[in-house]
Specification:
alpha/beta, Rossmann fold, 7-stranded parallel beta sheet, 13 helices, 43% helix, binds NADP nicotinamide-adenine-dinucleotide phosphate
């Protein structure tokens, strides 16, 4: 039986959607914090297990009878790393035979500006040290976050970000979920790392060109400095902690951390991942 954590989140739902279409729902379990949010999964026959990464007893209970766990990384809470460790420990105690983890595809984890990303690589190390057979999915930045990064008025204001010429091999979250589900359905669990990226890396100049052609309006990209970007967010009323979370993403993009392209996603999907213009058409409803 496969347990998907973060099952009421966006990636978890995408994984389960593919799993439900490809295997008997009575072979699927979902770890959720709030069972009410999982009513649709329950209705489709998925076994709903209530638990929290911060509550070891709930995790141990949730792992009963499970052979494979997909740990979907949690948010950026202060104890986020310990929460991941709790899931690994519970899986080990319960005799789970395969632990899959959603990590991040970044070129050089040792030179990251974004400290939030470190927990992914620390979690990978902890899983390796546990001796559990594992699969890592190093996921690229979701294309789905582009509207948030660029702001609600991007078609009017253009793109003003401190990302320089940096490129990102964006992929849609739904396609990463589909690919992850396919790997979970394989019988092997051979300590493999998949790099789930799009087939091409794009700069914000490329994003601006795509938005211009989709909207029929000229949309430009102006690379700005980090201080200027942070001031603009502050003037828009964005809280300081949020600014401090967004800004390092841009620095890492600028430094090329998100630019590596892999064919793993294409191979798993059996088709080319959705390219930038098509993805933006859907995300911006253009
Ligand atoms: P999401 O929609 O926010 O889903 C996160 C899921 O994790 C939710 O189901 C949430 O539960 C669950 N969760 C969080 N803390 C938990 C805890 N303490 N105990 C149990 N469950 C917990 O995020 P997503 O879009 O699916 O992305 C999945 C993860 O990828 C994120 O959490 C983040 O670590 C990472 N991420 C990656 C990218 C990227 O670009 N590659 C971008 C953003 C995030 P609830 O449903 O109860 O809230």
């Amino acid at each position: 039986m496969i347990l998907v954590t973060g099952a009421t989140g966006q990636l978890g739902r995408a994984v389960l959607q593919t799993l439900i279409g490809k295997t008997a729902p009575n072979q699927l379990a979902a770890l959720v914090r709030d069972a009410d949010k999982a009513a649709d999964l329950l209705a489709q026959g998925v076994d709903i297990r209530v638990g929290n990464y911060g509550d070891c007893a709930s995790l141990e209970q949730a792992m009963q009878g499970i052979t494979k766990v997909l740990l979907i990384s949690g948010g950026g809470e202060r104890d986020a790393l310990q929460q991941h460790y709790n899931v690994v420990d519970a899986a080990q105690k319960a005799g789970v035979q395969c632990l899959a983890y959603t990590s991040r595809a970044l070129k050089d984890p040792s030179t990251l500006a974004n400290q939030l990303m470190e927990r992914h690589f620390q979690t990978e190390e902890y899983i390796k040290a546990s001796g559990l057979p594992y699969v890592f999915f190093r996921n690229i930045l979701y294309m789905d976050v582009l509207p948030q990064f660029m702001g609600p008025r991007v078609l009017t204001t253009g793109i003003n970000l401190p990302a320089g010429q940096g490129k990102v091999a964006y992929a849609l979250r739904s396609e990463m979920g589909e690919a992850i589900a396919k790997v979970l359905l394989e019988s092997s669990c051979d300590n493999r790392t998949y790099f789930l990226t799009g087939s091409q890396a794009y700069s914000f100049y490329d994003v601006a060109t795509a938005l211009s052609s989709l909207s029929g309006k000229p949309v430009g990209y102006t690379p700005v400095g980090t201080a200027e970007f942070e001031k603009a967010l502050k003037d828009r009323g964005v809280p300081e902690p949020v600014i401090q979370r967004i800004s390092p993403f841009m620095t890492d993009i600028k430094n090329g951390q998100e630019e590596d392209v892999s064919s793993n996603l294409e191979q798993l999907l059996g088709r080319k991942p959705t390219a930038l213009t098509e993805g933006l058409r859907t995300l911006f409803n253009l």
